[in-house]
């Protein structure tokens, strides 16, 4: 959210997309000192699970997200690009949501993978196995 806010404060039009399940939590956690929703368009997409489903079952949640959200994101981008004078020119996604980057690529939109966790965590899966 901090990256989105900083981009918006520098004049970029930002649409922040998350799942319906966490949307209200994000809205409630926004800082009260500034009206974030005036700077950023907040949008939620379905993750494919029912509201009563257990989202702590990572495998089930991941499968559902991969089945549903790429199509939902594609439709959202088409809606925005079809109705706005300004088109989406870049998609920044959490690196864990690689499917979002694939959607951007298929639609000809520039894409950036963002890693919000500590840099050391990113280094783990890509580290060189050779000794220093």
UniProtKB/TrEMBL annotation:
It comes from the Eukaryota. Belongs to the UDP-glycosyltransferase family. This is UDP-glycosyltransferase 83A1. The lineage of its organism: Eukaryota, Viridiplantae, Streptophyta, Embryophyta, Tracheophyta.
């Amino acid at each position: 959210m901090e990256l989105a806010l900083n981009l918006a404060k520098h004049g970029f039009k930002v649409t922040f997309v998350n799942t319906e399940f966490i949307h209200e939590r994000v809205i409630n956690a926004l800082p009260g000192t500034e009206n974030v929703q005036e700077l950023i368009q907040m949008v939620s997409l379905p993750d494919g699970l029912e509201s009563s489903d257990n989202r702590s079952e990572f495998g089930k949640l991941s499968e559902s997200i991969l089945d549903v959200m790429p199509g939902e994101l594609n439709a959202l981008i088409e809606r925005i690009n079809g109705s706005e004078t300004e088109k989406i020119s870049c998609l920044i996604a959490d690196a864990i949501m690689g499917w979002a980057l694939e959607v951007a690529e298929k639609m000809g939109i520039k894409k950036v993978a963002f890693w919000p966790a500590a840099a050391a965590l990113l280094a783990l899966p890509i580290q060189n196995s050779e000794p220093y």
